[in-house]
Amino acid sequence: MDFKQEYFSIWQEVWTLHKKYFGIQQQDEQRWQQLDQECAELDKRYADKPERKFLQSLLLAVCAELERESKHGR
Predict the structure, then answer these.
(1) Is there a contact between 11 and 58 (Cβ–Cβ < 8 Å)?
(2) Are the C-beta atoms of 18 and 65 separated by less than 8 Å?
(3) Residue 21 in contact with residue 32, Cβ under 8 Å?
(4) Which of 19, 43, 46, 63 could tie 52 with a disulfide, CB 3.0–4.6 Å?
């Protein structure tokens, strides 16, 4: 895969997680654990790849956004 395809693929995977967990409630521990597990699985898949830091940055941004939104009840 070339640079453009690889990075777009990573962005798309993280975007899919964002859509899947958008609207998660702050007190929904089971869903937060599921999100954490899916993030860990993605991170493991990119463990030996140079794109890992990009993936981690996106995951952190999405998780922070989900957490922020969960506190506002949206």
Answers:
(1) yes
(2) yes
(3) no
(4) 46
